[in-house]
Amino acid sequence: MFEKLIRQDLAEFNAYSSARSLNLKGNIWLNANELAYDLSNEGFNRYPEPQPQELVHALATLYQVSQDEILVTRGSDEGIDLLVRLFCTYQQDAIMAFKPTFGMYQVSARLQGVEYFEYALDLTNEFTLDIDDLLKEINKKPNIKLVFICSPNNPTGNLISLEGIERLCLTLADKSMIVVDEAYIEFSGEQSAASLIKQYDNLVVLRTLSKAYGLAAERVGSVITNARLVSLIKKVIAPYPIALSVAQNAVAALQTARLALVKSKMFEAVRERTRLFQYLQASSLVNKVYPSQANFLLVQFKVDIFNQLCQSGIIVRSMAKVFNDETMLRISIGTVEEVNKLIKVLENINTGTIGANNETA
Ligand code: PMP
């Protein structure tokens, strides 16, 4: 029963009752202090639905869950923050996540004033997760309310098996929520943990349209979990998190023809990932390139080439602070042309052409 894990001071809390959340029927709307004139002819003078029904329907179909098992959020970032706020009491509870992993789990923990524990993934073993060891660490701490499992993990690119996730859900049923962040799952071709939410009520899955679906600018994330928890999260979400224009654009982007395009670009990204991986593995500039199931590669170069790439107009993500090693870079997979240019620049760096004359590719 996950209910006992939510913040006790929120158990009796009533959400803000917005005009649209009352679901009243009528044709003269004098209840929300909006301008009565629709100057846009698109209904932009009215507040949007708190959960835009058409979008919820499209996402539930996409992720193969029921409509009451999904909450649409302003990107997964908002989903992460809502979970931390709902489950973690200030200066009392804690969160566990991988080291390294996506930085927003720690930011949300800090903002909520809760402790953040890190479970170090084994760099020498390509970051493979030892579930028993993670469970041992979690069980040493009393108040870990949320365990974030980023799969595929950012920035390491490795996937955590569904068997492992099930073990965590079962073993921690009375203690912690297991939050599986699947921002990059589409690039792995593997099954989503959303297929398990009916079996484990302490399981939450985060999905996003920001990555494979090419809609980062729209800010559309989904929290997928059991219907009881969805209605509890609605207590802490902002009254109208999804703008009408965002809902319209996202629904349009989820139509069949565009989804076919998304699929073909996703396959292209995976092909480019393989091509770049193979190039890097053979490159004498590289110490180690880590296998990835996401749309990026984590690479340890022999020297720090971040600035040389910048000089050539190629911006990658430095992982210097995360690994305490300035030769570690995370490289997102670009278009075929962008990967070609990157390879050309790397060739030039290798032959010493870049740096000497600032040649760009
Ligand atoms: N989760 C992971 C693992 C991410 O890497 C990111 C963004 N880089 C997010 C969530 C945030 O996604 P969104 O754009 O949906 O807020």
Please describe what this structure looks like.
There is one protein chain. The protein is of the alpha/beta class and 361 residues long. Strands 1-7-6-5-4-2-3 form a seven-stranded mixed beta sheet, with helices on both faces. Helix 3 links the parallel strand 2 and strand 3. Helix 2 runs parallel beside helix 3. The C terminus is likely disordered. The structure holds 4'-deoxy-4'-aminopyridoxal-5'-phosphate. The site of 4'-deoxy-4'-aminopyridoxal-5'-phosphate has 12 residues, from helix 2. 4'-deoxy-4'-aminopyridoxal-5'-phosphate binds next to helix 2.
- Please estimate the helix content: 25-40%
Q: Give the amount of beta strand, in percent.
A: 15-25%
- CA distance, first residue to last residue: 57 Å
One letter per element, helices H and strands E, the order comes to: HEHEHEHEHEEEHHHEEHEHEH
User: What integer is the average pLDDT?
Assistant: 95
Number of strands: 11
Low-confidence parts: 356-361
Quick recap:
With 361 residues, this protein is of the alpha/beta class. Helix content is 34%, strand content 15%.
Give the SSE map.
Layout: H1 53-63, E1 70-73, H2 75-87, E2 94-99, H3 104-112, E3 115-120, H4 131-140, E4 144-150, H5 162-171, E5 177-181, E6 203-208, E7 221-224, H6 227-233, H7 244-253, H8 256-282, E8 286-289, E9 296-301, H9 306-311, E10 317-318, H10 320-323, E11 328-332, H11 336-350
Bound molecules: 4'-deoxy-4'-aminopyridoxal-5'-phosphate.
